[in-house]
Amino acid sequence: MKSENITKTLLLIASVIVVLISTGMVFSLINGAIPTFKEFGLSFIWSNEWNPTEGNENYGAVPFIAGTIITSMIALVICIPLSFASFLFIGEYFKGTFIANTLSALVDLLAGIPSIIYGLWGFYVLRPFIVELGLSPQGFGIFTAGLILAIMIIPYATSISKEIITMVPNELKEAAYSLGATQFEVIFRVVIPNAKSGIVAGFILAFGRALGETMAVTMLIGNANVVPDGLFSTGNTMASVIANQFGEADGLKLSSLIAIGLLLFVITGLINGLGKFIIKKLS
Amino acid sequence: MIKNILVSLAILVAVTACQNGAKSTANDNKKVTLTAAGATFPMPYYNLVFKKYTKSQGTLLTYGGIGSGGGIRSLKDKVVDFGASDAFLTDDKIAEFSAPVVHIPTCLGAVVVAYNLPGVDQIKLTNGLLEGIFMGDITKWNDAKIKELNQEVNLPDLDITVVFRSDGSGTTFIFSDFMSKISQKWADAVGLGKSLNWPVGIGAKGNPGVAGTINQTTGAIGYIGSEYALAQKISTALLQNAAGNYIEPTIESISAAAKGEIPADTRVMLTNSDAADAYPISGFTWILLYKDQAYDGRSYAQAEATVTFLDWLISAEAQAEAPKVNYAPLPTKAVTAAKEILKNVTYEGKAILK
Asked: Chain A residue with minimal CA distance to B161?
């Protein structure tokens, strides 16, 4: 066989495996979630009671969907201005300087830190700080979790956006400068409009990471299975409740956890789809 | 050059692989390997005695601390020789198995109530106070009801932060079993289970998580497995037992909880024990195995090794190891009951233990 054919076959096998794995995952999630949807119907998705006590078992996904979306939104809201500032700093204003390179390396380093370390730092440093500020008596809750998520996703959004804006053709920028544009005008009239789909993609990827983040969130959110009633109230997220509870779960509870997994899969898929749609619209 | 190195590396790998293969088959013929999985609560004890047994008898033992639920599932799927659980199986749950399952108690543990109050050495709590605190009715440490009972200590004006286990856990099960016995309000509103619908508080993962959160949060109170709390010398509240005495959790007071009558199948919750010196939130931890060991093509040697090991596990030699890792040994009555159950474990209908 020619080497070209071997490569082709290998590539085909690899891509078939990817397809098989993802359909297999969806299939087993659906399969595991069936008992829950049989018992509660679709109301599982909008019921907000989570009672695992035997005899009174009643499961609803709302506390976790709410916790996931709210913490990720907090993270995104904090992340956008900060990472906007840092990628402009690194990729445009101080491009190529020592300080920008150092900052860029640090941002990449942040992206590589395992989430458990963020969790530990959040638990021992950030949480007591929130208590010190008097924002909450014990420091656990939606806001603290959102804050740690923001710190975790900033490097993602920043390093992707930085790569994108450095790819904007110099000719364009030079043309704008030669027409008398200021640096501010070049950035907001030329660079960002050219790079916007990439920047949006970076933020969507960051948001996706926040949705699925488990360890650091579970250490800070308080793990109370209720719909949060304020910024500093405790709550729980979809990924965190699964990680916490699956070990001792069986029967209907296990099925409900799998159903939450399925919902998380669907939500992540929707966000990704939305992202692709936005990118297409923008470019 | 590089090619040569690669070739010699490949040969080396192949040779080592062959040697390993040869070695392990030789071992398999001589030694039986027992696989078990389940509760994490008794894991330090199991690790200790399993190692000891392997050293003296040669039987290889592996234990996966995957949680009681996981242990029960593994036994149901017949992928382990025996499972381990902190909660006994109800009749309904046993009926889900393809064959009868028996329970062997292996040691006792307890759940302690730990707190973080700077400058307070020891507090006493009645059942009523436990209900009030964990139901969220008492929210301040200087509440008149707590003060009245603890007049010798200076209770601060602090919010009470309840800390509970966020993961499903046998520790939560024993705690909620006790709470359901002492408080009708708890039984109606919260109930019994490995994870609960908590009225107030913060969830933390595992004993270390709860202990760490209490340690880091002034005014926190929570419950922790005794094996962890005693090992870490965490300060614990004195609780009121059924006889009305305030008891500190110790190996002796935990063991005392099993002094009373024990049913023949040992499936009993020992919380709120009648014994005068018993710590009220104590309980057995069990090993589960199929009553007839001839299933799924298991050999007689495998079945015999399983039962012989469990027989050793309840013997005085193994039980003496329990206090070393902060578990309470089985009282004589419980050992007798467990022995009787083991004698009735069969292989194709014939008893294995002689």
From this structure: A138
